[in-house]
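Hi Y.,

Following your request, here is the sequence exactly as I used it, all 444 residues.
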Amino acid sequence: MKRTGVRVAAGVCAAGLAWSAAGQDLGLKPGVPQKETWIVGATVHTVSGAVLEGASVRLDRAGTIAEVTTSSVAADAALFTVVDARGKHVYPGMIGANTQSGLIEVGAVRATLDYAETGAVTPEVRAAVAVNPDSTLLPVTRSNGVLTVGVLPLGGAIPGRASVIRLDGWTWEDMAVDDDAGVVVNWPTMRPTRGWWVTKSIEDQEKERREALAQIDTAFATARAYLAARGAGQAGPTDVRWEAMRGVLEKGDRVFVRAEELEQIQSATAWAVRHGLKLVIVGGRDAWMPTAIESIKQADAGVIIAGTHRLPRRNDSDFDESFTLPMRLEEAGVRWALASAGGPFETPHERNLPYHAATAVAYGLGREAALRSITLSAAELLGVGDRLGSVEVGKEATLIVTDGDPLEITTKVERAFIRGREIDLENKQTALEKKYREKYRQQE
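Below is the corresponding structure, written out as tokens. Let me know if you'd prefer a different format.
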């Protein structure tokens, strides 16, 4: 017990040092209020409409896009912050739709992991509440143009509720775009696993599957019964678990179901149709299969693809199965978005989101569809498409200014705005770069 305590204490110390680096060592602070801003002379990629050459965008003090025009603009520098973007490109900030950003810092330090709650059914958990605004991983992510993320908790059958957060703010309340975007469900594996490494019999695996499905069904049935009783005026103690499911069962909020295999997708879509739920499949490795597409369309479900940088799952899979999945769903007319693979080990690499899209382009997906998949489509499937994902009047002024196409690895994000405030693009990695460049400069 003593040694365990020492390890935990060491972990807490390491976590504190890592987290303090974001706010102290690197001098990183959230964006500050500023005058209205004009970004002038850029090529504006609206995503929802045409690409506008030589266009200008006005960001108001409320943090929204007030005007997008191709007319000549003569902004008074005394009244406005003027950004000369001639020769540059303006895009909506990219959206990582499947992350644990802010819930993990150092994978090997348990004290910095807060992505899973104790218990199998915990819908009352909101991911945003646990997000650490001082995580050093957030500035790294946003420096490459990913300015908003969907945070989905892990663990258990119903691990909690997804949240959509902007990567700027003093507290999680500042960061939250939608702290209750929908309930997350981890669908059990439907196909028995066979192999020399498997210790459980087929019968035991099938029993666990039945129990897991029953647990999910029981939770939703209990929540329905509880809400019906409350709606009828029945007195009794408030149960925060079932109150947390009111949005999904009564307001049409989304249910994010993690499902990769064909059988999981078919089972989850049939379940969603049976219960009248708004479904979003997260993962979707087998979503390209005709029977899976049919099931997804029948459920009117969307799919958040968990990355293209994945190896084939089966021995007989095509080598490019993950690379071509976005193209296949686009051609099939499925509503989809592209995210990273999600999970704790992917969190430090969320900055690579545009390169997942670039891989899909290299394997047949149109460039416009790829850009939409990490901006507007991601916003729509997360339920914030009316606020984010495109450069349109009335939407949040969350956008980036680049020197080229963000899907190209050589492109640099030169400036970024979150809700109208220009943010610092410095981060731990850029600070280390400057440090060691100085070392070699002194040796010249």
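The CA atoms of residues 266 and 294 lie 9 Å apart.

Thanks again,
Q.
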